[in-house]
Amino acid sequence: MVVPLISPSILSADFARLGEEVRAIDVAGADWIHVDVMDGHFVPNITIGPGVVKALRPHTAKPLDVHLMISPVDAFLEAFAQAGADIITIHPEAGPHAHRTVQAIKALGKQAGISLNPATPAKMLDYLIDDIDLVLVMSVNPGFGGQSFITSQLRKIEAIRKMIDKTGRPIHLEVDGGVDVDTARRCVDAGADVLVAGTATFRGGPDHYAANIAALKGTV
Ligand code: DX5
Ligand code: ZN
Q1: What domain count does the chain have?
Q2: Range of the domain at 141
Q3: Is the pTM of this model over 0.85?
Q4: Nearest Cα to Cα of residue 120 among 98, 147, 100
């Protein structure tokens, strides 16, 4: 059985103690740290920018998994790369030239991800998949933590797993939104290998992070 990597979304952390929260999830077994960047334009919420990513960088050696929900996006790639992002994921709808944006991320020496909204078909990846390192399937509409998992996305995860296997390249398949112990299993069964979890990681406070992450991995 595949044990997924867990990328806790710091959107559900205590923003007044963000450095401490990142250290706590690192020690508790997080594999990556998921950073949700929202602009109040591409999505109906505003979160954080490259300055916060830079401030968090010294608090963990784990990969910073930066999910950009901003439009336009190209002008900000360099700032996030310099701030210490390891993986930069964009939405193809956020700009007219997704392929160019992927090339720009790679030219900055970072791993490139493509995120698909719930209504966006897997087909969107046809001419991008050979150039990317990660696919992020949104199992909620982007903008907020704490929403319910949209089960139709399981079919999309299955389809993308087949596409990835066909490439023979090590492309991560990550799922984001409404992931809890139950939906985590279903995502892994459908072919996901990385799970984002905000609410399900931070529930109960720091004393619970390790148990929450282990439960999501299915190792307890
Ligand atoms: C939604 C974000 C998610 C979100 C996940 O736009 O991309 O990363 O924070 O939160 P939960 O796990 O609470 O659904
Ligand atoms: Zn996210």
Answers
A1: 1
A2: 5-217
A3: yes
A4: 98
Both tokens assigned to 12: 């559900």
Asked if residue 143 has its Cβ within 6 Å of ligand 1, the reply is yes
For 1, other C-beta atoms within 10 Å of its C-beta total 8
Is the Cβ atom of 44 under 6 angstroms away from ligand 1? no
Distance 44 CA to ligand 1 centre (A): 13
Q: Is the pLDDT confidence value at 219 over 90?
A: no
- Closest residue CA from atom 10 of ligand 1: 145
Mutate-to-test residue for ligand 1 from 6, 7, 10, 12, highest number of ligand atoms within 8 A of CB: 12
The pLDDT, as a whole number, for residue 1 is 74
* CATH number, domain containing residue 110: 3.20.20.70
Which of 71, 116, 139, 147 is the best mutation target for the ligand 1 pocket, counting ligand atoms within 8 Å of the beta carbon and taking the most? 147
One DSSP character per residue, 78-128 reads HHHHHHT-SEEEE-GGGSS-HHHHHHHHHHTT-EEEEEE-TTS-GGGGTTT
